[in-house]
Structures are given as C-alpha cells and as structure tokens.
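Item description
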Amino acid sequence: MNLPSDGPDRAETEPSPAPEPEADLALSGARLAVFGPALAALTGLDAAELLAVLQHHDEPFAKRLAAATLLSLLGDPRFRAFEPDLVDIPGGPTTIGLAAARVKEVTEAWAHAGVERDWIAKEVPAHRVELAPYRIGRYPVTNAEYLQFVRACPQAERPSAWPHGTFPWAAANHPVYTVAPASADAYAAWVAAETGRPIRLPTEAEWEHAATGGDGRAFPWGERWDPERANTAELGPLCATPVGLYPTGRSPFGVWDLAGNVEEYVAEDYRPYPGGELISDDLTEIHGVSYRIARGGSFARHGDLARCQRRHGWYPSIWYAMGFRLAESR
C-alpha cells in the first residue's frame, strides 16, 4: 500500500506517485537493523547517561532510538507533571508565509511527492507580523503528559493511536497523536487551570517564527531538505519516535521536532493570509471553509509537509498523525 501524499486516502481517488513502499521499508529496516544490539549495549545506563546519548548528534540513529526507548520505560526525566518545558522566544517583527513568486518553484521541487500548486498557494503572501514575547514547548506534548490529563478528566478523548485505548508504556516519551483539535485545546486549558499560567496552543505566526528563527528558512535547520534531520516517510521508521531524537533538526531557538514526527495543531483555523486567496482543496471538501491548521509534517508524510511555511490540516485517516505543543503568553 502506498503512503498518500498531501490529500485524502488515494485508494479512494487515484494512486499516489510516491513513496515506493518497498524502498521506504528497506531504508527503514536498514536503519533499525542494529537497534537490538544498541539496546543491549545501553542496558544498565542511568537516565542521565541515556539522555546524553539521545541528544548527541554524533551518535547513530539506532543508538539514539535505543536510548530513548529505555528512557521511556525507566521514566524520562524531561517530563514532569504540570511543569511544561517551554523555550523563551523574543517578540518583535517577523515574516511568515511565502512569496507568490516562489509557489511554482516549491511545487515543482516536491512534485515527486504529489504536491499540487493550491497546497503551496495557501502560504502566500509572505507578510510581516508583530509578535509579543512568548514561550513555546521545547517538544510536542508526549503520551506521558497526556496520560495525566486522561486520568484527571475521564471524559477526555483517548488517542486512537493508543491500542484499544490503553496507555503505550514503551512509547511514553513519544508525542501524543491522533487526537481532535478540541482535545488539544482542552489539554492546554487543563494545564493552564492546574498551573495558573496562561498556557495555550501557539498561533500560526508563533509556530512559524519558532521554526524559522525569523529568517524565513524552509526548514528549522536551514534551506536544504535533509531527511536525516527529521522523522518523515523518506527514511522512516514509519512510526512515531521519542521526542528530541533528531538533535540536528532543532530550530534556531532550540525547539525540537518542529519538522516531522507528528503534525501539530495551532490555535487558529484556516483563513487566507492578508492579501492571499481563499484556497478550496481536499481539506475544504471534507471540513468546509474552516478547519484547524496543523504544521510540521509527520512520520507518515513526505518532507514537503515539514517545511516551516506549510499549512495543512487533519484528514480522517490513519496516515494523519495529529499532535500539538503548548505555548504561553509572557
């Protein structure tokens, strides 16, 4: 079965041109072939030692993943109840969006992933925004953090990614995903109530500014796409991974996982940027004109969705891994 490009399940419409699943699975398998030995070699290290391996950019992928997996089972010290790890982002003017003259260039660069012009046209025009100082989550919200919400609020939505509704202990430090926008809002409101702090989801402009550092770069690390720096469909492992697994994928502000792993809801629904055109596409056919914007791409998507400017949204499909991260007004 092909992974779909940025649209609904292609089995319902037309075949997706990429990626070839055999090639993707072969790449994923090659990267994970040494996972078992790496896991065995790291057994016995304490949490601080495992965290050092996880965050060291020179360590091979399988070793970093093994360290993160052990941390998940031991208890990851990065995540504490009601102590969200937020990064300070300075305020001021910033540019978000894409210049209209670049739509054709970006569309053609990602044609192999089935990208269509209208999907990129949502990013137009590039425009200046004045931001107040704020904080944003260093990582997406994890399963372990979301579990506290479920325990405190029995009515809370359980992610469909949790098998049979049970907590995935081996994935405690993976980002929570496959939740509705309302659940992301409810989680943020719950944390705000428990902490007495102005916790919320980030705005689109805040999310993009945290990803680009304000210089308009295409990816959190720079202009060139590099599949080694993010968990996307190009290299696998075709499932969610522990947060913070890609140290060379951090943004200029030191924010992790803004490209790949899971898509992230922001606080706003889709609307054209000032001076932009209203785009009707597959998302508006499903949701109507208004739908919650998601950013950053995921493990099941190609690198085009990991672009800092890319505006996307949720489809009712297992291929759409929707998570979120927190923000805070300062």
Q: What stands out?
A: The chain has a mean pLDDT of 89. Residues 34-77 form one domain.
